Amino acid sequence: MVASRASDSFFIAAFIVGMGVQLRMQALSIPLRNTTSRYGLVSQLFHWLIVGLILFQYTWAWRIDQAEGIRVRFELVTQHKTIGMLVLGLAVLRLLWRLFNRPPALPSAMRGWEQVAAKAGHWALYGLIFAVPLSGWLYSSAAGYADFWWGPVSFPSLVEANESLEDRMQLVHQGLAISLGVMALIHALAALRHHFINKDDVLKRMLPIWRSKD
Predict the structure, then answer these.
(1) pTM score, whole prediction
(2) How many domains does the chain divide into?
(3) What are the residues whose beta carbons fall under 8 Å from the beta carbon of 106, sequence distance 6 or more?
(4) For the chain, how far is it from start to end, CA to CA, in angstroms?
(5) Which terminus of the chain has fewer Cβ atoms in its 10 Å neighbourhood, N or C?
(6) CATH number (domain holding residue 158)
(7) Tens digit of pLDDT for each residue in 58-84?
């Protein structure tokens, strides 16, 4: 029950913050699609929703490790799995949107190897955002569980219950989650470097509080 109340509070807070951000974006007249100088409304919403949910997932994973009692742990794990599937769904939509909405070009001042590294880092992040929930889905399937915490919604098991596979997928899921955290940290530090050292607009063009020249 405590876990359920906590999750309800999180989603209420997320809804309020999301509405506030959306109103702020509307006030700044951010276009839906990307422009040559900034990301559009849809791209920004996908980005920050996924960021928030992933941060929530790391917090929830820590709570699962600290939880005492089978019932509380089960609730936390079920919620963790459900949010993971939500992240996966948003990632699919975001990727589709990106394929039809060209992102702003990287600053011309960036060296060739820096541009290659930036693009490789972005696609590595995309890959991990897909791989982490998919590995969790396989892990849950191998464990023989497909429980979700709202209504009758459930996802099919990808494999039959298999204890040996469950153990392996647990390690894979944890390893991928750590890799995602490391890549996300590198991504954030790179954005801060662009803002404070390079003095370009790489960070600002993903922020709803910045008014572009477009």
Answers:
(1) 0.85
(2) 1
(3) 115, 118, 119, 202
(4) 49
(5) N
(6) 1.20.950.20
(7) 999 999 999 988 899 988 998 899 899
